[in-house]
Amino acid sequence: MTSLSPASTPIAVLLNANARLVTEKVRRNLAKIVPSANLFLSQTPEEAHACVKEIIDNRYQVVFSGGGDGSFIHLLNLARDYVRERNVEVQKAGSGDLYELPQFGILKLGTGNGISTFVGSRGGTKLLERALHSQALSTLEMNLIEMGDRVFHFAGSGFDARVISDYRLFMNSLPSPAARKNFSGLVGYFCSGLGKTVPESLLKPDRGEVRIEAELADEAYLVKHARGIDEAVAAEKTLLYEGPSTIVGVATEPFYGYNIRAFPFARMKEGYMNLRILRAKPMTLVTQMQQFWNGSYRGAGVIDYLVKKVKITYEKSTPLQIGGDFESFTNAISYSIFPQALRLVDFRHMLT
Predict the structure, then answer these.
(1) Domain 2-142 CATH assignment equals 3.40.50.10330
(2) pTM for the whole thing?
């Protein structure tokens, strides 16, 4: 953990204006505590891209991001891609300082907010105001996961992605913006999950056959659960699992949204991601929801590994979510640890 001084550090605030908790009141409060030149609002991907360009070009060292996990991942990838682009230009010119990815502060203003829970962020703008007036900001590092040319902090395939896909379909079926607002978030997830995903899973069980392989056995660890102690032991082979699965997920921080501690071992070993294989049937997930929610579930229904690079192959097309947003249906997924760790503002010390 390190610290930085807000007084001497160029800081920007970038909000997804469409995020659920980015209200007019929040905007007014931000206008009082953040200089207008440092406050950026985006409603479209194009506007977000333009904001990121200005932030990187002006070399802001810290960017406070307002939105959920999906908004943050989008911002992170825009920033990483533009930093690469600018550094190519610097290297071609043969002069000038290279650009760096800024540090990020996460404001809890979205729907899922898994990463907000991880860094101790709360809703509204009070923590931001305290951060801007503090003598020093504590920061922490979080590894990132790479798939193709995208980076993120958690993803999953199977039942969880189906829940997210069904939630999206449910929200799109509602007749008005007012109705969508009323059902946005946890209420909507329960309605779509219990009304569609769970019943369909009972009528047509779909525990996809999957093969999961690590690139190198000496870079994979099995998390053993014995005598009340969780311990990482070296994997003996690259084939980590083969058989039916309900969910296969990866993460470098413990939380899904809504304080769900879905990956309790994500921080167990630096430089690794928690690969979690849920073999328990969907109904078990529902009946044991509290244990899965707080990360205390142990038993034959779950297998945990710590890995750096893993390949997941399904027998048939399976839904995939990244950062809590439905992505696609796929048969093959490759995850690896991104070489550059991300530095985040740690709000937890401000909560006491």
Answers:
(1) yes
(2) 0.89
